Amino acid sequence: MPELRSYTITFLTLLILTLTFVFLSRYSTLTIDNNFVSENGTRFEVIIRSTFEKEEVDVKERTESVTESQGRQARPHVLFILADDLGFNDVGYHNPYITSPTIDELATTGVRLENYYVANLCSPSRAQLMTGRYQMRNGINHILQPQYDECLPLSEVTMADILRNAGYSTHLVGKWHLGYSRRECTPTHRGFDSFLGFLSGSECYKKHVIRWPQNGHNYSGYDFYVNERIAYEYKNQYSTHIFARRTKHIIEQHNTTKPLFIFLSLQAVHSPFSVPERYIHKNKHLKDPVRRIYAGMVTCMDEAIGNITQALKNNGMWDNTILIFSTDNGGPMEKYEDHEFLNPTNTPTVASNWPLRGGKATDWEGGIRGAAFVHSPLLMSHVRGTENRELMGMVDWLPTIAGYLGKGNIDNLTLDGYNIWNAISQGERSPRQELLHNVAVHGGKGQVKAYGAIRYGDWKLLQPAPGGNFNFHVQRGLHIPPPEMNITIQSTKFQVVDGSDSSTWLFNIKRDPRELHNLAAEHPEMTSLLRDKLTKYSKFIEHHGDRKLVDPEMYMKNKTIGPWL
User: Fold this and answer.
1) What's the pLDDT score for residue 184?
2) Which residue from 4, 380, 436, 514 puts its CA 20 to 30 A from 151's CA?
3) What phi-psi label fits residue 33: left (phi over 0), alpha (psi between -120 and 50 degrees) or beta?
4) Catalytic residue among 77, 177, 254, 270, which?
């Protein structure tokens, strides 16, 4: 009898499998593709199209893929962390003297982006991130300041708009800096469900007061908001701590069945330079006192990131989260609090972009090559712990995050960005071969020419506009090692690049990342090609009227900063 029962069970099992196969053969189309690689090396993708249910379901068999949810591939949570004015050399995985254990662990077990570019200033980088478009298309090619009526054009669709429409919960924590003269310009009107932070570009870390000069007077105003409400209750609290607590709270209160997007736009490590004493003490090995404070700000930011990642783990979200870390531009080349420009007799700058040339506000590599990495359990194992040297930039995140990962609708948008997820997560070639760094026009009637910087393959053309812009790049085209590295160079003056008598520099960045050798004369065809490309991009420059100063009485009420129109 036991043997008969065993045969019966086997027969019934085979019958069920046979009927299932017949059903699928009758009502479905079964195809095999070799586009995906499982952890054991098996390549396959199974797509089942059920004509019976008249639905299409994609089932992608891959050990490290995003899990299925409610009949379709679940979308990941995305945490985008943007550091402010962080130098290329100001993270521990680039500089062992910097204390940033969490960042280092995430970077060295994730994918470090070592051929990654940002804009050279705060607002343009944020405009690229939010729109997936070069800043010359929307007029945000400068730092937005409180005394002007300007913001990211309301016609621009933001990453947050797209993700919210696709079903994401969207939150901005930290710095906005894309304009606030009108309520419609502020974060909760640009796709974010919630906002806690400040609207302007720079302020005190604890008092949350921004100061600026205008018409010979110095003005100041409180700038800290919860959504559209001015939030005085955060006065005298250090901003990095506030932003970490807020981000943890969002995670802890989140319904994990809904995808989450958090844009953590930190104030750190922008000036003014200050941090609680305990973080300075963790960097007591640094002899330079202000460099020690700056490093303490990095350490405080690192602690905040560690607390946030732990919250994701505690809430069961980490395995389906993609963490992206980026600076907004290179470290500035001013010294200390007074922002006095560095000249050859001054002490070293606070931030460090070593070994790159230049810094913030320039199109030298030190101003635009960003410290960045991606960490996620969703990365294929063979790319974890690697450096990625494929060309990519800030402008690529919208089509990658909102379009590909978030399944948002970007079909009708004119974008400059590319989907770079496969290049990062699987080690494929980047779809990007060309990247515009900056473009402007200069000259009188009939003599207008395009100037700026552009990357094409391994080649980079840097052609500052004659006059002030050219002189500015010469003055700030410095190689300055940080004091802790004890590197001696002959002079901190502009080290004249070979052939720099002209205002045009051509570099092979792969071979010459420090921009020491000007190859413009040796490669006139490449120089001409890149000049033509700059000219092409200059046709898309958008101007949104003249920037006119606004009376402080209009935009500052009760010593606060906020919308006034």
Assistant:
1) 97
2) 436
3) beta
4) 177
Tens of pLDDT, residues 383-428:
999 999 999 999 999 999 999 999 999 999 999 999 999 999 999 9
Residue 3 pLDDT greater than 70, yes or no: no
Residue 67 to residue 48: CA distance in whole angstroms: 17
Three-class secondary structure of residue 268 per DSSP: coil
The answer to whether the beta carbons of residues 437 and 368 sit under 8 Å apart is: yes
The amino acid present at 216, given as its one-letter code, is G
Q: Degrees (nearest 5) of the Cα angle 345, 349, 353?
A: 125
Q: Which residue has the tokens 């906020």?
A: 562
Residues in Cβ contact with 139 at an 8 Å cutoff, skipping those fewer than 6 apart:
150, 153, 542, 543, 544
C-alpha dihedral sign at 492, 494, 499, 505: positive
d(CA 373, CA 393): 12
- CA 365 – CA 500 distance, rounded (Å): 17
Closest CA to 358 of 290, 303, 438: 438
| 171 counts as catalytic | no
Closest CA to 560 of 230, 219, 221, 220: 221
Which of 355, 192, 342, 321 has its CA nearest to residue 251? 321
Per the annotation, the verdict on 204 as an active-site residue is: no
- Say whether the peptide bond before residue 348 is cis (omega within 30 degrees of 0): no
- Helix (H) or strand (E) holding 34, with range, is strand 28-37
C-alpha dist (Å) from residue 263 to 110, 160, 169, 400: 19, 9, 11, 15
Higher per-residue confidence, 475 vs 328: 328
In whole angstroms, what is the distance from residue 93 CA to residue 89 CA?
9
- Model confidence pLDDT, tens digit, residues 469-481: 888 888 888 888 9
Residue with the two structure tokens 């009485």 = 553
Three-state SS string across 425-460, please? Answer: HCCCCCCCCEEEEEEEEECCCCCCEEEEEEEECCEE
Using DSSP's 3-state secondary structure scheme, residue 404 falls into: helix
- Distance CA(133)–CA(414), nearest Å, equals 8
Distance between CA atoms of 71 and 55, rounded to whole angstroms? 10
Q: Using an 8 Å Cβ cutoff, are 128 and 157 in contact?
A: no
Which pLDDT belongs to residue 179? Answer: 95
